[in-house]
Amino acid sequence: MPDGPSELTYPEHLRGLSLPLARGAVCKPGEWHVLREVGVLGFGASDFAAACERVMSWQMHRDAGLGVETEGDVELGRRVSVSAGVGPLTLVAPCEVVALVDTDTEAGFAYGTLPGHPERGEEGFLVRLRDDGMVVGGVATFSRPAMRGLSLVGPVARVGQRLVARRYLAAMLD
Q1: What is the CATH number of the domain that holds 65?
Q2: How many domains is the chain built from?
Q3: Quick one: average pLDDT of 46-55?
Q4: Which residue has the higher pLDDT, 29 or 10?
């Protein structure tokens, strides 16, 4: 899938906001549904490095049970299509990486929705090595339906979104 000019389907001033949300920031970006899942992944530098590798190579997505179509590992501007389902019931969600974090104590990224995604918004994935050695993973999204009719199944979609976020956390360190 070639990289190209940005066609993100949500406001520019919100780009990158999912990473502070994954860190625990408390904010509500207007009329967007916000979801955050945080969990302890392990302890120490080796668990941190392993979780970072899984997140930044898309392995977390694959191990969470999703299909991933992209040209390489996570990098700014990289486009990816994430899919779930079987046959004609497969849902494809095109996204673009809009923010990266890569320090000695934090690694992760955020991707935003592109045209064709069933929702508008952003999702961020973050792994942190705390001062006490604890490795913590965070997943945060803000979103709203992009397609008419999706708002009718909103509660079901939100349950699905939370389940996938929990699967991402479990897949950060396997």
Answers
A1: 3.30.530.20
A2: 1
A3: 97
A4: 10
Return the number of other C-beta atoms located less than 10 Å from residue 22's C-beta: 27
Q: Whole-model pTM?
A: 0.89
pLDDT at 2 over 80: no
CA-to-CA distance for 156 and 29, rounded, in angstroms?
Answer: 22
* pLDDT value of residue 136: 97
- Average pLDDT, stretch 151-157? 55
- List the strands of the sheet with 119-129, edge to edge: 33-43, 134-145, 119-129, 106-113, 91-102, 79-84, 67-70
- What is the domain range of residue 68? 12-24+31-172
Question: What is the average pLDDT across 27-53?
Answer: 91
CB burial readout 45-55, b (16+ within 10 A) else e: eebbebbbebb
In-domain check, residue 168: yes
Q: Is residue 5 part of a domain?
A: no
Contacts of 136 (CB under 8 A, 6+ apart): 38, 39, 40, 41, 127, 128, 130
